[in-house]
Amino acid sequence: MQRAPSLPRVASLPRSGSARESLGGLQSSADEPTDPASLVQSEMTAFAHAHKRMLNALIQRTPHLLSQAFEPLLRLRGVVNFNNKRTHFQTRMRKLSMRPGQRPSSLRLNIRRQHVLQDSYHQLHLRTPQEMRGRMAVTFTGEEGVDAGGVTREWYSVLMRSLLDVNFSLFESSTDGTYQPSPNSAVNPDHLSFLRFAGLVVGKALCDGHLLECHFTRSLMKHLLGLPVSLDDVERFDQDLHKNLLWSLKNSIEGVLDLNFTAETDYFGSTSVVDLKPGGADIQVTDDNKADYVNLVAAHKLTHAIKDQLAAFQGGFHDMVPMEELNIFDEGELELMLCGLPEIDVEDWRRNSEYSGGYSAASQQIVWFWEAVGEMCQEDLARLLQFCTATSRVPLGGFSQLRGVSGPQKFSIAKALGDDNRLPASHTCFHSIDLPVYSSKEILRERLMFAITEGTQGFGFS
């Protein structure tokens, strides 16, 4: 139910581009290739998708195939599974750390625990990428212990907490507890150097396979991969802004909202106004141009307002992990590479779920849903959680602690109209899925897996 604006709220609107609504709309005859080379490519792609389970089993037994005959499979979305991609990436990172004819270098840090950020920065920020790829050995001043890996893991944990500390103003937190560079980081005169250092540390963690305890915004993951961000990503960063923007797209704003092509910025309580396009203060937002306005507001929030900060963070990160080594991943997979696969308790998830629209816990489709979810591997469970909540994190305390826009918000499944061709759709603000009344468990599983692995993002912008 929608509430009248000022400012407007939108409830139960579909997630933009979260999944295509019909499998029947995936291809059209106009898109079918006609030249021989394209036909062969199309047939090879279809073959790879049809036999991806067998191909992944071969790759798991013989990983070097991805560096040889099977390398083209990495460019086909949804064919090579996450575990095989991760193994391939780790092999590539080990090769990068090796200089021809030389042993891998080492990095020895002596860190005062109470000054972990300053000491780490001064000892690392001028190192070359090749030096940074060396084996890390950390000692905390005045503390006994030989670093066999555990001290380094603790160093990452303590250092990342310091980098994300609000008192340094390098990063800001989103409504779902994820982080991205702060537009107000300039309060620290060396902010760009520290943000580049932060990117260097995150890239080092990725190279070495050290999992971070923090999560970054989905839009930051996309920036690191060179992917366009979308209106969906606004929902994951600022849910109130996302609802307001969606409301303006779905409703007539003329005579209701008095807007122009500007955005407000807040610098520690001091508000200023910036144009979203040249002369934006003199351009009224109307029903005819509101889509352009929404596009520009979202781009400003996720990209333009932090363009210098993003460039610094990306620069440090890509010094450690070249872009060409990342293009096998999507943003969800990169999050899993940085933060690891969560341990998801399906029974806890089921116990803390609600149903609406005519569904109940005893409905056949709900029974099939939880059976299908119970048969998923941890990788697919993480993707499902990302699809429903926009993050792979399980809250401390389990699924009973899920929080939405207005506080505690349980996962819910609503009955959706449509036939077996319709895909499930998610509403990440509300931790919910619209689940059509499928005629069999097999079809439900197939459509659900397609939605969480192949569903595309919409409303893109640069």
From TrEMBL:
Keyword Transmembrane helix: no
SMART domains, per database record: HECTc
Residues covered by the HECT domain: 128-462
Active-site residues from the entry: C429 (glycyl thioester intermediate)
Pathway where this protein functions: Protein modification; protein ubiquitination
GO cellular component: cytoplasm
Database matches in PROSITE patterns: HECT
Single Gene Ontology MF annotation: ubiquitin protein ligase activity
Chain segments annotated as transmembrane: none
Keywords, ordered alphabetically: Transferase, Ubl conjugation pathway
EC number of this enzyme: 2.3.2.26
InterPro entries named in the record: E3_ubiq-protein_ligase, HECT_dom, Hect_E3_ubiquitin_ligase
Pfam families: HECT
Region feature Disordered, mapped onto this chain: 1-37
Reaction(s) the record says it catalyses: S-ubiquitinyl-[E2 ubiquitin-conjugating enzyme]-L-cysteine + [acceptor protein]-L-lysine = [E2 ubiquitin-conjugating enzyme]-L-cysteine + N(6)-ubiquitinyl-[acceptor protein]-L-lysine
Similarity annotation: Belongs to the UPL family. TOM1/PTR1 subfamily.
Protein's recorded name: HECT-type E3 ubiquitin transferase
